[in-house]
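Hello,

Our lab assistant flagged a job as stuck in the queue for most of the afternoon. It eventually completed. Since we weren't sure the result was trustworthy after the delay, we are filing this so someone can double-check. Below is the sequence as submitted and the structure that was eventually returned. Let us know if re-running is recommended.
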Amino acid sequence: MSHERNKFPIVAGGLFAALLATGAQAQSEGPGWKRAEEAPDAVPVVFHSNHVVNLPTAETWQKGMFQFEISHRFLNPLSTGYETFYGLDGPVDMRLGFGWAPTATTTVTLARSNLNGNVDLQLKWKALHRLVLKVPMAAALLAGVAWDTNSPAYESTNHRAWQYYALLPVNARLGQLALGVAPAYVYNSIQESNEIEQSVTVGVYAQYYLTSLMSVLAEWDFIKPGYYYDYAPMALGIELETGGHFFKIVVTNTNRLNPSQVLPGAVLDASPDNWQLGFNITRLLNF
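-- returned structure --
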């Protein structure tokens, strides 16, 4: 596993360079690659991106759009200093994802994390996007299923290798500040347990848009201390948005990425000694 993880920074570097090259070309190809202009009487978008760091927002994409995602969490914490170049020397846990919007209010995403070979399929439906007391609000229902294809505890064909989850993100926009709450439920959340565990969590997050292209963000997922994951996952970061790209650079106390893995909690607490660097890159595509 460690040998496999050490290859990922090289692979990710190539993908990252390809994304930059595509982005440069896309920006010269015109507005088809960018977010559509809102009509004067349209309800303002609450969040620009469909997720903050690990937690989803209520946002979807235009009908027919695709999204490619690559996310990394560097396993060595920042506290290791220059010895590991503050974690950037690797190894990493990563997520690759590809999504599609069959309608303007629905997205389907298939993703894989190298942690236990977790394959994730999720469906999001935006149920609400309107002004409520003059405040732009949005709400969505997200449901998914995950399969640990190489779980250390169970064979992939065993029912304990499967997890199911649902989230209800509700968002509101107050000027340049976007706020959200995302209650979540995970079935078979702690696979190391002898019994099937069920987790209920409440995630909260906020994003402040400094400009139309740059923002700062934070999220915290409140959990009830459980069988193994006793700490709340947290993340702080910045987001850069340009030409259909979203670049998020974050510090976090968890290396987990797919929803069924991150929602049950973190192994480490959120003290500065445990902070790890990470990034999320998403690219909207219109073939």
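-- support follow-up --
The delay was a queue issue, not a problem with the job. The result is valid. The longest strand covers residues 118-132. The domain at 2-285 is CATH 2.40.160.40 (Porin).
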